[in-house]
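Structure first, sequence second, as always.
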């Protein structure tokens, strides 16, 4: 049975680069980082990371979700309906040390999850991590929140 949400390639690389306001040359080289994709229509966000090139990862991820190769039905539908006009994409942190990229991503997701879990597109994959973080002392959580 064919996937009803599958589309061949609805998102154009150049269109994504224009939304990011970066030249194509930024796709070369190593540039680890954490990024946030926000749907302005509903206020929902997706937080992602790359240990290699954050701009390249944003493009790959958006295209994979739009083609329905990565399962995130809600983000998939919103991308097809509202991209590019109702989406904002930003690199939240560049990380010269790629070993901290995952930690930063988890902190940002945990912070968003603590504020409003329904706002996250990627909430389901982080619920277990959030349960662990919930057990931290309030003072430790305050320190994390001050970082970002």
């Amino acid at each position: 049975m064919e996937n009803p949400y599958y589309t061949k390639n609805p998102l154009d690389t150049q269109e994504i680069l224009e939304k990011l306001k970066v030249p194509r040359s930024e796709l070369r080289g190593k540039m680890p980082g954490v990024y946030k994709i926000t749907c302005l229509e509903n206020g929902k966000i997706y937080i992602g990371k790359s240990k290699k090139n954050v701009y390249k990862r944003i493009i790959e991820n958006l295209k994979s979700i739009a083609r329905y190769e990565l399962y995130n039905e809600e983000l998939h539908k919103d991308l097809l309906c509202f991209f590019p006009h109702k989406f904002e994409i930003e690199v939240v942190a560049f990380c010269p040390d790629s070993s901290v990229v995952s930690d930063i991503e988890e902190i940002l997701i945990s912070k968003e999850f603590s504020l409003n879990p329904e706002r996250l597109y990627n909430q389901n994959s982080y619920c277990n991590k959030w349960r662990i973080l919930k057990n931290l002392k309030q003072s430790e959580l305050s320190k994390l929140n001050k970082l970002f």
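Margin note: The first strand starts at residue 33 and ends at 39.
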